[in-house]
Write a structure and sequence with these properties.
Strand order of the largest sheet: 3-2-1-4-5-8-9
Distance between the termini: 10 Å
Structural class: alpha/beta
CATH superfamily of the largest domain: Glycogen Phosphorylase B
Number of helices: 16
Oligomer: single chain
Number of domains: 2
Radius of gyration: 22 Å
C-alpha cells in the first residue's frame, strides 16, 4: 500500500485546544499515520491564545508520525476577529494557501475552520476535499444550537442570539457566501445520524455521510486485574466541561436527597463555581477537577455508570464511548445523538428528568448483574461501531468513493487495497 498525503485544517489541535474537536482531529491524524499515510495538521495558535490568555502550553516532542504546523501571525486577536467577521482568512490566508498548494495533498480534510479561515478557506488547495462537522457551525453562528444561551434552538433567531453570546454578528452569513463556498468541498461528514438530520432541518443544502468519532482499540482489563478504585465509596461519574448546557443543575439535587452512593464530577469550566455552590455542604458530591486520561480511565472502570445529562444538541458524545471502552454503562438524557448511541449497543439507559434518572440509578444499585450486562453490551458496541478498527475504514471509504467519482485512480487503488486487507 502506497501512503497518501492528508492535510487536516482546523482551528484547534492539542495542546492548543479546549474541547473534543481538536482531540478528535488528533486521533484521526494518528490513526492515518499508523496506517502509513503522511499527515500534516495546520491549526491556528492565535485562536487558542486569544481565548485562553494563559501561558504557552507544553508541546510534546513529535512521536506519532504527524507533522503539526501551528499558525502564529503576530496579529493575535485581530487576526481572529477579522476571520470571524469576514468569513475569510484575512491575515493568514496566503500562508495557508501556500502550504496547501506546496504539500501536493491527495486529501484536504477541513474540520472546525471557524477561526482558522471561515468558509473562505474551503477554496484553498487541490485534491479531494472533505469537511467534518464536529459542531453545528455550518448552520449555527454559536456552534451549538443553544438559542440565546438559555434554550434549545427550534428555529433561527441568529442575529439576536449571537448578541446574547456577546459576539459580533457575521454578516456574511446573510449573503449566500457560505453556500457558494460549499461547492469547493467534495463530501461532508456528520458525526451522527442525529447531527446529519439536524443540519438538514436547519437548511444545510448538501448531503452528508455519517462517520462517528472513535477511540483507539483497547481491551478492558479483566475484573480481577483491575487497579484500585480512585474513590472510597460506590459512585456514579460525570465527566466533561462544566458548563450550563451540560445539565448538571438537575443531577446534583438527586444526590443531595440520598445517602447510599456518591457523585464524582471530573472536569472544569466557567460554570464550576455555580455548581460547587449548588453542591455545597453535601458530602456525597465530589469535584475532582480536570484529570489526565489514565486517571479518568480508572474513574470510568470503577463507576457504577457514567451520567450524561447534557441539555443541548451535541453532534456525537465521545464520553459515552469512553465509558463503553471501559465496559461501563451510561445513563444519558434522551436528547440529541444519545438515544442513537445507547440504543445501537444497549449499553445503558435513557432518562428524561431527575425522577427517571433516580429510577435508573436504583435499578443498577439493586442489581449488580444488570450493571455488568449493560457494561458488556457497551464494550461490544464500542468494538463493533466506535473503535479505530471499525471507524477508520468507513472514513477511508468516503475518500475512496470521492476519488472514484473524480477519476483519481492512484487514490482508489491505494485505498481499495487498504480497506480490503
Amino acid at each position: 500500500m502506497s501512503g497518501l498525503r492528508f492535510a487536516m485544517v482546523t482551528t484547534f489541535y492539542p495542546p492548543y485546544n479546549f474541547g473534543g474537536d481538536g482531540i478528535a482531529v488528533q486521533r484521526l491524524s494518528q490513526a492515518l499515520a499508523r496506517r502509513g499515510h503522511h499527515v500534516t495538521v495546520i491549526h491556528d495558535a492565535d485562536a487558542y491564545h486569544t481565548l485562553h490568555r494563559g501561558p504557552e502550553p507544553s508541546v510534546p516532542a513529535p512521536a506519532d508520525g504527524v507533522e503539526v504546523v501551528p499558525i502564529k501571525s503576530g496579529f493575535g486577536a485581530l487576526s481572529i476577529l477579522l476571520t470571524q467577521q469576514a468569513g475569510r482568512p484575512v491575515v493568514n490566508g496566503r500562508a495557508i494557501r501556500r502550504m496547501l498548494d506546496a504539500g501536493r495533498f491527495d486529501v484536504i480534510n477541513f474540520h472546525n475552520v471557524s477561526l482558522v479561515g471561515g468558509p473562505g478557506i474551503l477554496a484553498a488547495g487541490h485534491g479531494i476535499k472533505l469537511y467534518m462537522a464536529h459542531e453545528h457551525w455550518l448552520v449555527c453562528p454559536s456552534h451549538v444550537l443553544w438559542r440565546h444561551r438559555r434554550e434549545l434552538c427550534t428555529g433561527r433567531q441568529c442575529f439576536r442570539c449571537v448578541l446574547h453570546y456577546r459576539r459580533p454578528p457575521q454578516l456574511w452569513r446573510y449573503t449566500g457566501y457560505l453556500e457558494r463556498q460549499l461547492r469547493h468541498v467534495d463530501a461532508f461528514i456528520a458525526m451522527s445520524e442525529f447531527s446529519r438530520r439536524k443540519h438538514q432541518e436547519f437548511g444545510f443544502p448538501r448531503d452528508m455521510d455519517v462517520v462517528p468519532s472513535f477511540l483507539p482499540d483497547q481491551v478492558p482489563a479483566p475484573p480481577g486485574d483491575r487497579d484500585a478504585a480512585p474513590h472510597p465509596r460506590p459512585f456514579f461519574l460525570f465527566a466533561g466541561r462544566l458548563e450550563k448546557i451540560k445539565g448538571l443543575d438537575d443531577v446534583i439535587p438527586v444526590f443531595q436527597a440520598q445517602q447510599e452512593v456518591d457523585l464524582v464530577i471530573a472536569g472544569d469550566g466557567e460554570y464550576a463555581a455555580t455548581l460547587q455552590g449548588l453542591a455545597a455542604g453535601h458530602p456525597r458530591i465530589t469535584f475532582v477537577g480536570r484529570v489526565d486520561q489514565a486517571t479518568l480511565a480508572r474513574y470510568y472502570r470503577h463507576a457504577i455508570a457514567l451520567i450524561v445529562p447534557s441539555v443541548c444538541y451535541e453532534t456525537f458524545g465521545i464520553i459515552l464511548i469512553e465509558a463503553f471502552r471501559q465496559a461501563t454503562p451510561v445513563l444519558a438524557r434522551r436528547i440529541g445523538p444519545f438515544p442513537e448511541i445507547v440504543e445501537q449497543c444497549g449499553g445503558g439507559e435513557l432518562f428524561d428528568g431527575p425522577d427517571d434518572l433516580l429510577a435508573a440509578m436504583r435499578r443498577l444499585l439493586g442489581d449488580p448483574g444488570r450493571r455488568d450486562r449493560l457494561g458488556r453490551a457497551g464494550y461490544e458496541g464500542f468494538v463493533q461501531h466506535w473503535s479505530e478498527s471499525a471507524v477508520v475504514p468507513r472514513y477511508l471509504e468516503v475518500v475512496r468513493r470521492v476519488a472514484e467519482t473524480k477519476g483519481l485512480r492512484h487514490v482508489v487503488e491505494s485505498l481499495t487495497a487498504e480497506i480490503t486487507t
